[in-house]
Specification:
The protein is an alpha/beta fold. It has two domains: about 110 residues, Alpha-Beta Complex (Aspartate Aminotransferase, domain 1), CATH 3.90.1150.10; about 220 residues, Type I PLP-dependent aspartate aminotransferase-like (Major domain) (Aspartate Aminotransferase, domain 2, 3-Layer(aba) Sandwich). Helix content is about 40%, strand content about 15%. The protein has 15 helices and twelve strands. The strands form three sheets. The protein has a seven-stranded mixed β-sheet, with helices on both faces. The radius of gyration is 20 Å and the shape is globular. The chain starts with 13 loop residues before the first helix and ends with a helix. Belongs to the class-I pyridoxal-phosphate-dependent aminotransferase family.
Length: about 375
């Protein structure tokens, strides 16, 4: 028996490839985006507490109410945006599921979705598996990966169903500005185009910047799905727990898709996060924690031959190696994993046409010892 593939051009994700290679070679894994340190002991205690107290059966499909209420309160306190816990907040199995459920809810055959590349590798498959087509807006290092909104406007057609955003952006670390938000609102005025906003790094943002969501704009909120995650904020990527915020009518369709994808998410984890969010410092302190890591990493590689602009957000730092070699970024990432024992991600994989700008992405969500050891090896190149 053979399957006619719906994704004939999709192979194993680059994150799996590079993490597996790092494991096989014993390399320092600065490729895949996950911390190598544990989450808060208090959070583990809370999970254990709720497990022992019997919270081990199915949670409600939309998520337990205490967690939805906690998210609503946090969102209002930080951004001044109101969402109803009853029918505008849904707990999901990580942001990846949220994105897929959004596309399942809104995309019909031949609908178009504008995607900014370099793009995280789950975005386009989400669109294509639901019968849609990705329309690319290419961001380049020549313009510091800023968005040209006139180009975006030129890409809109009668088939455009959504624009997919990421802020802070993965892999570039770029953050949306108020000017970006205003331009987006202007471009979408008098259209029926949705906004899908991946905001998993909302608390990992640097140098005094403030997180800006499209949902903070009154003319964009009614059309925006905000997809968030606890994994990146609280060092719990393996728990796969996130959420989607959207107006009532949008959430109703979102939940129709969500119930067939995962139905519900692990109950004790939900109760633990509901308790943990009661202390704002548990998420507000994350910004300083990761800024210190970013600053240490770029300080430790300051004597290398790389070039970079400090990441504005996320826990990734991109570096240009154009002064070192003309080798392709993919081949170089593989070779350096094997030869110097430092694994990274080649940025070309995030482009549809594999544009190679001689840039690698390093994850600095690692303990200081690993980052310093990696930096020492990189400086010897």
């Amino acid at each position: 028996m053979q399957i006619t593939s719906k994704q004939p051009n999709i192979g194993t994700t680059i994150f799996t490839v590079m993490s597996q290679l790092a494991a096989e070679t014993g390399a320092l894994n600065l490729s895949q985006g996950f911390p190598n340190y544990n989450c808060s002991p208090k959070l583990i205690e809370l999970v254990n507490h709720h497990m022992k107290n019997g919270m081990n059966q199915y949670a409600p499909m939309a998520g337990i109410m205490p967690l939805r209420e906690a998210i609503a309160q946090k969102t209002f306190d930080l951004y001044g945006i109101s969402y109803s816990p009853n029918d505008e907040i849904t707990i999901v199995s990580g942001c990846t599921e949220a994105l897929y459920a959004v596309m399942t809810a809104i995309i019909h055959k031949d609908d178009e979705v504008i995607v900014f590349e370099p793009a995280y590798d789950s975005y386009v498959p989400c669109v294509e598996l639901n019968g849609g087509k990705a329309v690319y807006v290419t961001l380049t290092p020549n313009n510091d990966f800023a968005i040209d909104w006139q180009v975006v406007k030129s890409k809109i057609t009668e088939r455009t169903k959504a624009i997919m955003l990421t802020t802070p952006h993965n892999p570039t670390g770029k953050c949306l500005t108020q000017s970006d938000i205003n331009s987006l609102a202007e471009v979408l005025k008098d259209t029926n185009i949705f906004v899908v906003s991946d905001e998993v790094y909302e608390h990992i943002i640097f140098d005094g910047r403030k997180h800006l969501s499209p949902a903070m704009h009154p003319e964009l909120k009614e059309r925006t799905f905000v997809c968030g995650s606890f994994g990146k904020t609280f060092h719990t990527t393996g728990w796969k727990l996130g959420y989607c915020l959207a107006p009532k009518e949008l959430s109703a369709e979102f939940r129709k898709a969500h119930q067939w994808i995962t139905f519900s998410c692990p109950t004790p984890f939900q109760y633990a996060f509901a308790d943990f969010l009661k202390e704002p410092d548990n998420y507000l302190s994350v910004t300083q924690f990761y800024q210190e890591k970013r600053d240490k990493f770029i300080n430790w590689i300051k004597d290398s031959r790389f070039e970079w602009i400090p990441a504005e957000g996320s826990f990734f730092q991109m570096v240009s190696y154009k002064n070192i070699t003309d080798e392709s970024d993919y081949d170089l990432a593989v070779r350096w994993t094997k030869e110097i024992g430092v694994a990274s991600i080649p940025i070309s994989v995030f482009y549809a046409n594999k544009i190679d700008n001689k840039i690698l992405r390093f994850c600095f969500a690692k303990d200081d010892e690993m980052l310093e050891r990696a930096a020492e090896r990189l400086c010897r190149l």
